[in-house]
Amino acid sequence: MTEFEQLASLLFPDVTETVEDLEARFPVRNLKEGARVTRFAPSPTGFLHIGGLFSALISKLNAATTGGVFLLRIEDTDKKREITDGVSEIIKGLNAFGIDIDEGVVGFEKEIGAYGPYTQSHRAAIYHTVAKRLVEQGLAYPCFYTEEELTAIREAQETEGTPIKGIFGKWAKYRDASFETQKALLAEGKPYTLRLRSPGSEDRRISFDDLIKGKIEMPENVQDVVLLKADGIPTYHFAHAVDDHFMRTTHVIRGDEWISSVPLHIQLFKVCGFRVPKYAHISPVMKEENGGKRKLSKRKDPEAAVTYYAEQGYPKESVLEYLLTLANSNFEDWRRANPDAPQSAFPFNLKKMSVSGALFDLTKLTDVSKNVISRFSAEKVLADTLAWAGDYDAQLAALLGADEAFAKAIFSIDRGTAKPRKDIGKWNEVRDYVAYFYEALYENDLSALPENLSKADCAEILKAYLAAYDPTDDKDGWFSRIKALCEPLGYTPNVKEYKKNPAAFKGHVGDVSTVIRVAITGRRNTPDLYSILQILGEDAVRARLSAAMQTLEG
Asked: Are 171 and 256 within one domain?
């Protein structure tokens, strides 16, 4: 038995499993050629960020479009920063926006898949098995530095202006300690961390092909980084390499803040004898501010949290649709050519992602959402609004739920046509959209009446229409009655005629219908007026016309 093997036995006396055993337990996946295995691997240290959701979407798309697997791994080795129910919040956020997990953590202490555990705190035995192998091969060693000694090294490196900060070269005191020294220190019970014996050189560089950013060249890693902390818990760097190998991840898709760690990560895969995955580094989601751009901030920007979109009532379909416009610049052209196609039909391509970072624009999101909602059926609009209002607007939920047929009729107006209206961008706008249909929400506001007509003119129109109104009219008959009111009151039923000679008339048929519309709804811009009148019914229509007329005459 070599000294390295003896050291490994001292450090890991309880580890009996071998790396070969792990390879057998987690075999190469039986997937079709070209299928990608991707993962979303957040830490449960706070709310799910919109950038995290974006990253998860990109990973999911890569797996889905290739017939692969998308898994959720929870990286919870940093227990000091973990928050209560952090895992539940992550899963809830993904589920809320339709990012389905093929494998991994799916609930509290609940996992699916044959490559788990998918929570790092449950994988200590796996990490220790790999760590033991590295010690046996002379690729890792125990380091007995105290915190005070590490602080002194950092200060000395600052003083010397060392370009690389960390344990390497002359600073790696325990790298070449004799076996006898190591054995004695262990016998004393002196605390230690397990460090990588880096094979890197300051004279060498590495290069790799990033699937988004292209070829990147960087200095090789020379630091003897910590693999296992003093309590036996792995660092992120070591754990993720072990996890990605034994979960058979083929493509690591993550934020570009990790690019600086790639030399270390590639080195870790290689020293462990693992195949290096493909990398794709996503630029951060940006926000425009004072003429410049900055990353969305957890502290400054409420829209950074995915819970914001649920609270505002953005449908998951809208959020994903918008994120797809950020993901690939050709998505909007594809959508125009395929207005009714499911999002899953879009041929997503990593190489078409922005290298510099997408600009997140809430106004654009709302516009996209209006388009998405305009294609929903009335049944879906009602169901989704009720689901949202049940959590955020009890009064609206009660009003819509009291007569769902009535509510469905409201949402059916101008829906299902070649050019549907786009009045609703999120469910918190529905209250205002339906307000004039419900007496509890309706306000008799006449401020939107045409400016070119006097109160007396408006009252005269309403009086005439009240006398002519017939709820049994079909749409053509209804509009014919409106036009018939025009000439006796001094208006023309022909808009073009008015434009040719405006001095000859008080106004045109559009002004007449606008007066009626405002009297009924309190608004100048609404969906089809005939449909509104039919849904409100005769009693409500006559009551509102009379009330408006009295206000104008008073």
From this structure: yes
Contacts of 162 (CB under 8 A, 6+ apart): none
Phi, then psi, of 327 in degrees rounded to 5: -70, -45
Of 87-96, 247-256, 296-305, 367-376, the poorest mean pLDDT is in: 296-305
Same domain as 310, residue 252: no
Tens of pLDDT along 465-499?
A: 999 999 999 999 999 999 999 999 999 999 999 99
If phi over 0 gives left and psi between -120 and 50 gives alpha, with beta otherwise, what is residue 134? alpha
What pLDDT digit, counting tens, does each position of 184-228 carry?
999 999 999 999 999 999 999 999 999 999 999 999 999 999 999
CATH code: domain of residue 227: 3.40.50.620
The reply to whether 135 and 197 lie within a common domain is yes
191 and 276 both lie in a single domain: yes
Please indicate, yes or no, if residue 323 is contained in any of the structural domains. yes
Question: What residues pair up with 286 in beta bridges, in sequence order?
Answer: 295, 359
Tokens, residue 485: 């009111």
- 97 inside domain: no
Torsion of CA 248, 249, 251, 252, to 10 degrees: -150
Structural domain boundaries, residue 177: 3-16+124-282
With residue 364 as reference, give the H or E element that holds it. helix 362-374
Same domain? 343 vs 329: yes
- Which residues are bridge partners to 37 per DSSP? 69
In the predicted structure, residue 423 carries a pLDDT above the cut 90:
yes
* Tokens linked to 144: 């007995």
- Residues 362 and 259: their CA atoms lie apart, in Å, by 28
Average pLDDT along the chain: 94
415 located within any domain: yes
pLDDT (0 to 100) of residue 295: 85
The number of distinct structural domains making up the chain is 4
Residue 231: left if φ>0, alpha if ψ -120 to 50, beta else—which one? alpha
With CA atoms as reference, report the closest residue to 489 among 471, 515, 470. 515
For residue 525, the SS3 value is: coil
Whether the predicted pLDDT of 81 surpasses 70: no
- Please give the average per-residue pLDDT across 514-527, as a whole number: 96
Q: How much is the average pLDDT of 344-362? A: 88
Beta bridge partner(s), residue 254: 281
Please check whether residue 105 lies inside any domain of the structure. Answer: no
In terms of C-beta density within 10 A (0-12 exposed, 13-18 middle, 19 or more buried), how is residue 418 classed? exposed
- Residue 363 scores a pLDDT above 90: yes
